[in-house]
Design a protein that fits this description.
Strand order of the largest sheet: 5-2-1-6-7-8
Strand content: 15-25%
Order of helices and strands: EEHHEHHEHEEEEHHHHEEEE
Number of helices: 9
Radius of gyration: 20 Å
Distance between the termini: 16 Å
Shape: globular
């Protein structure tokens, strides 16, 4: 299942408007695949860091997938079906109009209008030129720096590298070095400013109710850590018919944006501390979960 995203560039700030004013005009494009923070978020942050680069990206209109470079025209259908061909072009951005010749009857086309009317996707990214920064939001109201969110909330840096590396030409030493330097800076930051528990932990700790509570509360299980915090672990139960490391956890949560409380839960793997299935007990708009260990 694809993770959709919306990539936008804010136009120069008009007099009388604030940075994220709902009336500020932006220009943006839909991207169908890999919109999550550990892929599109990282690529935008590192490789689309000027207005000129972003404008050229948006000139492609709707995107199938984001690469670290805009690249050249190629066969999108062949890219999807031919493994050898895919490997030769997968680091390039793939655009429906340029690389397929149509939008394939997709309803979401390039947008230009106020922030308040942006067609929200699973992830929305907005570049603010006066800050020279990318921001993201999950509710259209609270905007968070993409860089700070990556530094603090992506739990597995090795996984991030694996995901992003498929969208970079590995023979491009400058681009690879830039990615590795950023990853190392995140690791060094976390050593000095512990935010999340490291994945390099003693696995026996993972069966501890307190440890699981701490991990969930700090966003370890969720791809949307800025919106939900677990405030109480109700129970951790054996999962019948599942692997020995799998447990069912039930908890009470509180949304950080609205302050609403409810109950949630799901199947977790206590070996790697990730959700495998979401039970959606009460959540009306549950966070989208990443694919986890099978």
């Amino acid at each position: 299942m694809a993770t959709n995203s919306f990539i936008a560039l804010a136009e120069p700030l008009q007099k009388g408007l604030t940075k994220f004013d709902v009336n500020r005009v932006v220009r943006g494009s839909y991207c169908h695949n890999d919109g999550y923070l550990a892929h599109n978020g990282v690529l935008l942050l590192l490789y689309y860091d000027t207005v000129g680069k972003i404008e050229k990206l948006l000139d492609l209109e709707d995107l199938s997938s984001l690469g670290y470079v805009i690249g050249k025209k190629h066969d999108l259908n062949k890219r999807m079906m031919d493994k050898e061909y895919k490997e030769s072009v997968e680091f390039m951005t793939s655009a429906y109009k340029r690389d397929r010749g149509s939008y394939d009857d997709m309803s979401c086309v390039q947008y230009k209008g106020p922030i308040g009317n942006i067609p929200w996707e699973a992830w929305t990214y907005l570049y603010i030129p006066e800050d020279k920064k990318w921001y993201t939001t999950r509710d259209g109201k609270t905007w968070v720096s993409v860089e700070s969110l990556i530094i603090k909330d992506i739990p597995d840096i090795k996984d991030m590298l694996a995901r992003v590396s498929t969208s970079i030409n590995r023979e491009d030493k400058k681009a690879v070095d830039k990615l590795l330097a950023f990853a190392n800076s995140v690791i060094e930051y976390r050593k000095k400013n512990p935010v999340l528990p490291s994945y390099d932990v003693i696995y026996e700790k993972n069966n501890s109710r307190k440890y699981i509570a701490e991990c969930i509360a700090q966003g370890r299980y969720w791809s949307d850590p800025i919106d939900m915090k677990v405030i109480h672990i109700e129970s951790i139960e054996k999962a019948e018919g599942k692997a020995p490391n799998n447990k069912i956890v039930r908890f009470t949560y509180k949304t950080t944006l609205t302050g609403k409380t409810g109950k949630g839960g799901g199947l977790i793997c206590t070996f790697c501390n990730r959700f495998l299935e979401n039970e959606d007990i009460v959540l009306k708009n549950p966070s989208k979960l990443l694919p986890f260990c099978k």
